[in-house]
Inverse folding.
């Protein structure tokens, strides 16, 4: 292929065709392809390269924490997750119906892997996806509101075909978090689909947000057309440690080397913490038990 032809293809922004043209010319000569067959091949090459680049751009814009695939998920470890139900979500049908999805379950059971894998699959189908943890959401709005950029930030949350909000319920959120989340849910309501994950019961959302009325308003809209998927089971991350700790309880105190470790604190605002405040202190010779 001569330099003049290469230059012309680049000016026409046909870089994908440039990469494969030499091979296709040899193929056309060896297989005696017609002009129409040859033209179809090189145009398909160009389309393929453009699609791959578009997917790469959209994956970058989605800001996934990790790039996950559904085929890499260990379905045998947690049989409570229905494979056909997850793959149905990956078809994007719920996006067309403008339905929301909530995945509930203890930490480590695969919620984040599943929603990011669904998001990636939907990008390959041509949809725009945006992923944020709940902490990213709060940080985005607190930072940019101080810079008078509220509407600019909100536009990033309203534009995607699918907004994914992960990790809700890990700990109590800062003041005004409920206001930001409510505005996102309200303005996407019945116009765009939203997916969320949580490891806390819905009745605890008021404590986490520090605002029960706002939490009620969020759930009222979000759950109206939502599909709720409940995940149970042990943590996949702890599968090699024998018996995994029960999700609802704090870790048992360790007796390693004859020393007693302090029990981990329960999440702020949780029932475990409230009970802990009422329990009298034990002596130093007593070990904490859950």
């Amino acid at each position: 292929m001569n330099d003049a032809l290469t230059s012309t293809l680049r000016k026409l922004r046909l870089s994908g065709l440039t990469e494969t043209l030499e091979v296709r010319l040899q193929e056309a000569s060896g297989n005696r392809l017609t002009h129409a067959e040859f033209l179809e091949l090189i145009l398909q090459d160009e389309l393929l390269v453009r699609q791959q680049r578009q997917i790469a751009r959209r994956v970058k814009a989605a800001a996934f924490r990790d790039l996950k695939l559904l085929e890499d998920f260990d379905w045998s470890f947690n049989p409570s997750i229905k494979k056909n139900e997850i793959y149905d979500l990956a078809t994007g049908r719920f996006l067309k119906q403008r339905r929301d999805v909530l995945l509930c379950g203890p930490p480590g059971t695969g919620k984040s892997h599943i929603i990011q894998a669904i998001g990636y699959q939907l990008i390959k189908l041509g949809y725009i996806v945006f992923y944020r943890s709940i902490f990213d959401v709060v940080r985005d709005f607190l930072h940019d509101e101080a810079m008078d950029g509220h509407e600019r930030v909100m536009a990033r949350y309203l534009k995607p075909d699918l907004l994914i909000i992960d990790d809700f319920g890990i700990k109590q959120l800062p003041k005004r978090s409920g206001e930001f989340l409510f505005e996102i849910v309200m303005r996407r309501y019945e116009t765009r689909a939203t997916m969320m994950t949580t490891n806390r019961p819905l009745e605890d959302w008021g404590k986490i947000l520090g605002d029960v009325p706002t939490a009620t308003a969020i759930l009222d809209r979000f759950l109206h057309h939502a599909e709720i998927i409940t995940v149970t089971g042990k943590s996949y991350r702890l599968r090699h440690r024998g018996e995994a700790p029960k999700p609802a309880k704090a870790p048992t105190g360790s007796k390693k080397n004859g020393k007693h470790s302090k029990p981990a604190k329960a999440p702020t605002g949780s029932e475990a913490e409230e009970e802990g405040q009422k329990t009298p202190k034990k002596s130093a010779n007593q070990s904490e038990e859950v």
Summary: The first helix runs from residue 3 to 11.
